[in-house]
């Protein structure tokens, strides 16, 4: 290789010189033959001389290159054998072909040509290999040490050299850094005031002390710093490793406080919000505050852990306790009245495919806007047949204005107030684009708060204890202004909304629910007319009976039913079927799935309270309450039910 280089370097210049000398000799030969012949002789001699010198030089360079190569082979051999890093070479099947001394010291049971790399590391040999010019490494633990293993494929493409770098100290440091990062959290005692108000004076201090002692003992047991910042709220500081232990045990303090004896007709419960993974303490505190809001918005009695891009829920096994004080309804009514008075117009929007509760609440809010002399419109694109009767009555009355998404978008202005009822998730609203056209947004909803809620609303009235959004709107109507009378149609629509969400006042019904229904009855609501709104044809009953008859049950008290047939009223059909299945002895929870007219699978889940169907269907992208929940998915009904079975099986194993 060195000889070729010398020739390529000298050759061109030598040829040019010889060509010049030959031309000069020819010129001399023209003028004088003796002189020309002499010149030719001299040029020939020079050519022979140069050729001999070049041969000697090439030979010398070849010998030099050979000696350097031999020395490099010795150096390389010494470097590999005596390398301070453990080295080994494997073939295409993972067999160890060669090891150096350092590798043998660490892996003393390795024998060349008879040990596979997987026997040593429990890692397949293919995971060590990497493509050319691509850096890759994996971590392998052996003998209490952690190694970063890098690979280098040899020229023949068959064998691979593995380089083992001891990174035990670095990995230990990384683990300590991860485990000892600080997390912040808040603990809130749910219904603290109602809890003490239900107790005699001599018991109030002892109950409060017992709650405080239970929380602090739990914190001390888990090495958590807990500080009381108000009579019903605590702040806690803990490390990631402690949080992981709490998550593994599913925050046992949630159940511990249930055992505290009180004089109230409901148990003590806590809402816990923890923020983890923030870039700094301020961000972790923001996560913790958002997590606590989620826990409270979902009805309390649960822990919510908010991490970067991830939220985990624990607990939530108790029914939401009804709040007896109506102070929040009064405050909400006053604030809503002021907001509407300063608005240019009002747009009312519910969820897609509105049900009776959503429509009744919308009519109630429309009355408020009309009573404040503001132009209003209800956004509705399509609805189920079950809503046809009440919708036709509203249109025929001429007292209400309805519009689709396009019409509502053309009406919205800077000072428009947008009131969202019966949902708080942007993706479920009739027209999500409206949410970005005004900054004056009001949310009235009775569902448990989800992570993907409407951001930064001006007013929020979300009470998961309420039976329905119609109940919340009914209470607001009683405090909104001097003129409290509402139309008969509005009263019946609101009563129908309460009736459908409480299953004829049989579930999730509290004292305030009956008080709202009583007020609506005084406003002219006719229960016979309300019942007529729920009448369906004989085909609907046959489909429901077929779904009930085809239901499958499991040993854990669950019932599953599905149909591949599509129906425009599938959402109602699935819900009523799930309700009916709970009437069967031994059934504690039911799930029903079917296709709507768009070909989307609609799922309804119902429970008697022992199993939280909300947490089950949240894993399917849905939501709801402890006893009532729903979801919509893009997989066939049978596959959706199979996924729910798996979720239920995992839930059983966790117990």
Give the topology, please.
Blueprint: H1 2-31, H2 33-81, E1 87-90, E2 96-99, H3 101-106, H4 117-121, E3 137-142, E4 145-153, E5 160-166, H5 168-179, E6 182-189, H6 192-197, H7 201-221, E7 225-230, E8 233-239, H8 240-249, H9 253-256, E9 270-275, H10 281-297, E10 302-307, E11 310-315, H11 327-341, E12 346-349, H12 356-371, E13 376-379, H13 388-397, E14 402-403, H14 405-411, E15 417-421, E16 441-445, E17 459-462, H15 469-479, H16 488-501, H17 511-522, H18 527-532, H19 538-549, E18 552-553, E19 558-566, H20 570-581, E20 589-595, E21 601-607, H21 613-618, E22 623-624, E23 628-633, H22 637-654
Parallel strand pairs: 9-10, 12-13, 12-15, 13-14, 15-16, 16-17, 19-20
Antiparallel strand pairs: 1-2, 1-5, 3-4, 4-5, 6-8, 6-9, 7-8, 10-11, 18-19, 20-21, 21-23, 22-23
- β-strand percent reads 15-25%
CATH architecture of the largest domain: Alpha-Beta Complex
**Main β sheet profile:** 6 strands, mixed
H/I helix tally: 22
Radius of gyration: 40 Å
What would CATH call the class of the largest domain?
A: Alpha Beta
Helix content: 40-55%
Rounded mean pLDDT is 83
Uncertain regions: pLDDT < 50 for 5+ in a row? 5-10
CATH level 3 topology of the largest domain = inorganic pyrophosphatase (n-terminal core)
Number of domains: 5
Which structural category fits the helices and strands? alpha/beta
By DSSP, the count of extended strands is: 23
Shape: elongated
Distance between the amino and carboxyl termini: 74 Å
What is the CATH superfamily label of the largest domain? inorganic pyrophosphatase (n-terminal core)
Give me the side-by-side strand order of the main sheet. Answer: 7-8-6-9-10-11
